[in-house]
TrEMBL record:
Residues 588-701 form the BBS7 helical hairpin domain. SUPFAM superfamilies: WD40 repeat-like. Residues 324-351 form a coiled coil. It holds the Pfam family BBS7_pf. One of its GO terms (cellular component) is BBSome. Residues 366-475 form the BBS7 GAE domain. One of its GO terms (biological process) is intracellular protein localization. This is Bardet-Biedl syndrome 7 protein. Residues 483-585 form the BBS7 platform domain. Keywords: Coiled coil. Residues 10-308 form the BBS7 beta-propeller domain.
């Protein structure tokens, strides 16, 4: 184990000389680079550097077409180079204002990315520069020896791969999720050298051929099993069939091996679950000559190997005896190590007790790092909050000042308890404690928010360390929290328009849009004006926002979205004493259109609720009568599917109330724009909703 590691910070050095086994080099957040090999099952250190700034990336380099055995690390805004023996030969201060987030090396070319800035250096001299429209998560360059020109590819948070030529954008590639990692197919870009594999934060994988003029998508794998986001990818022939497999590491600890049975589409061959997120993955030969393995490094710094070496030896008793002796010596050495560690812990504990009780005692709060991720899931319109701590979590307290629902997560083994909270004086709507089982280092929660209600969700994380200490992490729940960025929208839908005019700058209106909507880059976009498209993940309605200095135009097929925007934007402008001229154009047809979008969901949820209410009565009948042949087929099918129905109902507890709430808001908002207050008619509306008749509902909306 090393310190906490970031994504893509562990590599295998190429095998040198007669020895076929490879050395492992890993950089951690304490700034230490560790290089080690495995001898007789034990890790033997080759070199270890002194601590420093945390290491964000580790890459291997060297002259083109020679073994890539020089080690390069990115720390802060500096790049350092080490030989495979651990001697430092390069220290390059880039003078970037932000820390380096991503790095790629090809011969004398160095590609670096901070949050929004891409820089290309050749022999440490500045060559090209590009400012991206959204955060850059990863960078690579197509192999120069195959493509004959430098083609950098940036993976950007706004679901785009940006392909560059020099300092200019060549073209953009739309992909189905925010890309977190890029890799060259088969490690070399395939036969053409133009094939790039990407992994997204919502767990999708794809291959795109980046030609000189346009992208050609080859294949794409969705995330059917609802697994974690992808953090690392490698290509290695672990099955020994002469074709490189795709090795994938995810942030929920799942390791996957895909192989290419048919020439085009990869198929999942193996998977293996670890208890924490996989930061780096490599295929190679480390532990034993002749047996390939997959090596992964996890968030808290564990390096784990999965080997192809058979564990059960075939052969006579002599072999078994030899194995048992080997095992015995291993077990005894582990026992010694354990005793040694226990003694050390006791000594340190005594030392701590003495120092904390002495007259010169200084209060010390142990620092621990938390890896967190708060993202919107498109499939069920809920937010996932993932908290990962380098030591075991004792408990997590979740508090919110806006109404949100906590949903059930299958992978979550923590015990949750709710505390009653008074929402009136100090606007406290949720207080829940998750108590974790021993050795839990990763916790996943799911919450669903209500659009129009915005505020902060806070997580108080307490790990199992002494003295007790806690970290608070805050997550903004935005007014239009269930909207997600999309590449395009359907312009044929009936749209409502909200137009703002006033004495505001481009930066000011951009900051208001950032406040209202998720997935908008915090940095003000370059240029005079900008257009963003969004889709509501719960209903499928859409929003188009176009704005520039002094003017903003928002179009949506859902009146409620326009109403929320109008309220929040005018509130934000009032805070800054800016006078706004607000005009709107309401399309009557859009209400009917939105109701038609909501209705199938409403019908489904009402039917589900009715079925669930019948289950107990039907089960009682079954017990009394012994068999259920006399029941109508629809009731028999309810009994057969009872477990699935209950499971689904439990997974989304307040779904029906949500839909009722949305229809009520739609009704109130429709008439609010006409200047009429219809709150007294809401009870009548709820009666019609219980009847679940689409035409009756539309007629009520139009008659009122």
């Amino acid at each position: 184990q090393v310190g906490v590691t970031a994504q893509k910070t562990m590599r295998l050095l190429p095998a040198s000389g007669r020895k076929a086994t490879q050395k492992v080099v890993v950089g951690d957040q304490d700034g230490v680079i560790t290089c080690f090999g495995i001898k007789k099952g034990e890790a033997v250190t080759v070199f270890k550097t002194l601590p420093g700034q945390k290491i964000a990336r580790l890459e291997l380099g060297g002259a083109l077409n020679t073994p890539q055995e020089k080690i390069f690390v990115a720390t802060g805004s500096e790049v350092r180079g080490f030989t495979k023996r651990g001697k430092q030969f390069l220290s390059f201060e880039t003078n970037l204002t932000e820390s380096i987030k991503a790095m790629h090396i090809s011969g004398a070319d160095l590609f670096l990315c901070a949050s929004y800035i891409y820089n290309h250096y050749c022999d440490c001299k500045d060559q090209h520069y590009y400012l991206s429209g959204d955060k850059i998560n990863d960078v690579l360059c197509l192999p120069v020896d195959k493509v004959n020109c430098i083609t950098p590819v940036l993976a950007c948070q706004d679901r785009l791969l940006r392909v560059l030529q020099g300092s200019d954008l060549l073209y953009e590639v739309e992909i189905p999720g925010p890309p977190t990692v890029l890799a060259l197919n088969s490690g070399n870009g395939g036969d053409s050298g133009e094939e790039v594999v990407y992994g997204t934060s919502d767990g999708k994988l794809g291959l795109i051929q980046i030609t000189g003029s346009k992208p050609i998508p080859k294949w794409e794998i969705g995330n059917e099993k609802k697994r974690g986001g992808i953090l690392c990818i490698d290509s290695f022939d672990i099955l020994g069939d002469g074709v490189k497999e795709l090795l994938v590491g995810r942030d929920d600890g799942v390791l996957e091996i895909y192989n290419f049975e048919s020439a085009d589409d990869p198929a999942l061959r193996y998977d293996h679950a670890l208890s924490e997120s996989i930061a780096s993955i490599q295929g190679g030969c480390v532990g034993k000559d002749g047996y390939d393995e997959i090596l992964v490094s996890t968030y808290s710094g564990w390096l784990t190997g999965l080997t192809t070496e058979p564990v059960h030896r075939e052969g006579g008793s002599g072999e078994e005896l030899k194995l048992s002796q080997e095992m015995q010596s291993k077990i005894s050495s582990l026992r010694n190590e354990l005793e040694h560690l226990q003694i050390k812990v006791l000594q340190e504990r005594e030392k701590h007790q003495q120092s904390s009780q002495s007259s010169t005692a200084v209060s010390s709060v142990p620092a621990f790092s938390v890896n967190d991720k708060f993202t919107l899931n498109k499939d069920d319109a809920s937010y996932s909050l993932i908290l990962e701590v380098q030591t075991a979590i004792d408990n997590v307290l979740v508090q919110s000042d806006v109404p949100i629902d906590l949903l059930d997560v299958d992978k979550n083994s923590a015990v949750v308890s709710f505390s009653s909270c008074d929402s009136e004086p100090n606007s406290n709507f949720l207080l829940a404690t998750y108590r974790c089982q021993a050795n839990t280092t990763r916790l996943e929660l799911k919450v669903r928010s209500i659009e129009g209600q915005y505020g902060t969700l806070q997580a108080y994380v307490t790990p199992r360390i002494q003295p007790k200490t806690c970290q608070v992490h805050q997550y903004q729940i935005k007014p239009l929290s269930l909207h997600q960025r999309t590449h395009s929208i359907d312009h044929d839908r009936p749209m409502n328009t909200l137009t703002l005019k006033g004495q505001f700058s481009f930066a000011e209106i951009h900051s208001w849009v950032v406040f209202c909507l998720p997935e908008v880059p915090e940095k003000t976009p370059a240029g005079e004006s900008i257009t963003f498209y969004f889709q509501n993940t719960f209903l499928g309605t859409q929003l188009e926002s176009t704005y520039r200095k002094g003017e903003g135009c928002f179009k949506s097929d859902n009146i409620s979205t326009i109403s929320i925007l109008k309220d929040v934007l005018s509130k934000e402008a009032t805070k800054r004493k800016i006078n706004l001229n607000i005009s709107y154009d309401i399309n009557e047809e859009s209400v009917r259109h939105t109701l038609k979008l909501i209705h199938p969901k409403l019908e489904y949820q009402q039917l589900l609720a009715k079925k669930v209410h019948l289950i107990d009565a039907l089960r009682e009948l079954q017990v009394h009568e012994g068999n259920v042949d006399f029941l109508l087929p629809k009731y028999r099918s309810i009994l057969e599917e009872a477990d699935q129905l209950l499971e689904e109902y439990k997974r989304q507890p307040a779904h029906l109330e949500r839909l009722y709430g949305m229809i009520t808001d739609l009704f109130i908002d429709k008439f609010k724009f006409k200047g009429t207050n219809v709150k007294t008619r809401v009870p009548l509306l709820l009666e019609i909703l219980d009847g679940c008749d689409q035409d009756g509902l539309i007629a009520f909306f139009e008659a009122a």
